[in-house]
Amino acid sequence: MGALHNGHLNLIKQAKQQQSKNTLVVVSIFVNPLQFGPNEDFDRYPRNLKEDLEKLKELADCVFTPEIKNIIGKEELIKMDAGPVSKVLEGKTRPSYFDGVLTIVAKLFNIVQPDVALFGKKDAQQLSIIQQMVTSLNFPVQIISIETQREPDGLAYSSRNKYLNSEDRKISLILFKTLNTGLEEAKKGSKITKILEEMKIYFEENNNLNKIILDYLVVVEAKTFRQIEEEDLVGKLFYLLQPLLGELD
User: Fold this and answer.
1) Where are the beta strands (DSSP E) in 15-85?
2) What pLDDT does residue 120 have?
3) CA 201 to CA 191: how far, in whole Å?
4) Are residues 65 and 29 in contact, defined by beta-carbon separation less than 8 angstroms?
5) For residues 60 and 14, what is the distance between their CA atoms, to the nearest angstrom?
6) Is 5 a catalytic site residue?
7) What reaction does this catalyse (predicted)?
8) Is residue 157, in this structure, part of any structural domain at all?
9) CATH number, domain with residue 202
10) CATH of residue 124
11) The dihedral of CA 130, 132, 133, 135: what is its sign?
12) What span, in angstroms and rounded, lies between the C-alpha atoms of 94 and 96?
């Protein structure tokens, strides 16, 4: 959506590596109003198109920057329904978010007609829903997921990191360290309940002045995002932590 950071630029560099002869790397920049709910930060979401285009000079063959009136129009008659997986976790508190994301992603796919599209793993639930849309609706595009890019101290790159003041920036590191606590516990072969318990203990002990509000801390099955509580599941799991810190969501 713009305000490009190193995470975005890494996606584009990865796209360049996928590029073959007679193909183009196309980057879209569009702050999508359909994925913002009431009282969210659409109006003040970081935007700097001139700076973004400068960063893309040597990376992208084409940059698509549509205006809202051209890609949505005055009246959007048909929208995508992201299905059951969009009603849990992130979708529970932001009920129209994933429908809005899919509507614009589908439009971009139809306009650009890409062979390959790259998305970051940071927004794991969004990535899963986009993959399901491509499969369900037979979009002729290959989705490639790219590992989350982090700053040297572990904070994931995000355009909204600009909202953090210096104190919040320091406190935010508890999130990465909480996830690492779960990872280390998982390496020991601990059960899910034990892993979550240790993560919660670490979080609560280090959440200075209770500045971070924890929306959820769960383990889910990677494809369906069904919350896992049993101990006998075999398959790929995601450990999801959703914070609210200062003005960062």
Assistant:
1) 26-28, 62-64
2) 93
3) 16
4) yes
5) 11
6) no
7) (R)-pantoate + beta-alanine + ATP = (R)-pantothenate + AMP + diphosphate + H(+)
8) no
9) 3.30.1300.10
10) 3.40.50.620
11) positive
12) 6
Alpha helices, DSSP H only, in 57-208? 68-71, 90-93, 97-112, 124-136, 166-171, 173-187, 192-206
Q: Which is the catalytic residue, given 3, 4, 8, 125?
A: 8
**pLDDT tens-digit readout, 123-159:** 889 999 999 999 999 999 999 999 999 999 888 988 8
Tokens representing 231 are: 């101990």
pLDDT tens-place string over residues 42-56? 888 888 899 999 999
Q: Please give the Cα distance from 6 to 15 (Å, whole number).
A: 14
Smallest CA-to-CA distance from 61 within 94, 28, 100 is with: 28
Contact 201, 184 (CB under 8 A): no
Angle, alpha carbons 237-241-247 (nearest 5°): 150
Asked if residues 226 and 193 have their Cβ atoms less than 8 Å apart, the reply is no
Task: Say which amino acid occupies 166.
Answer: S
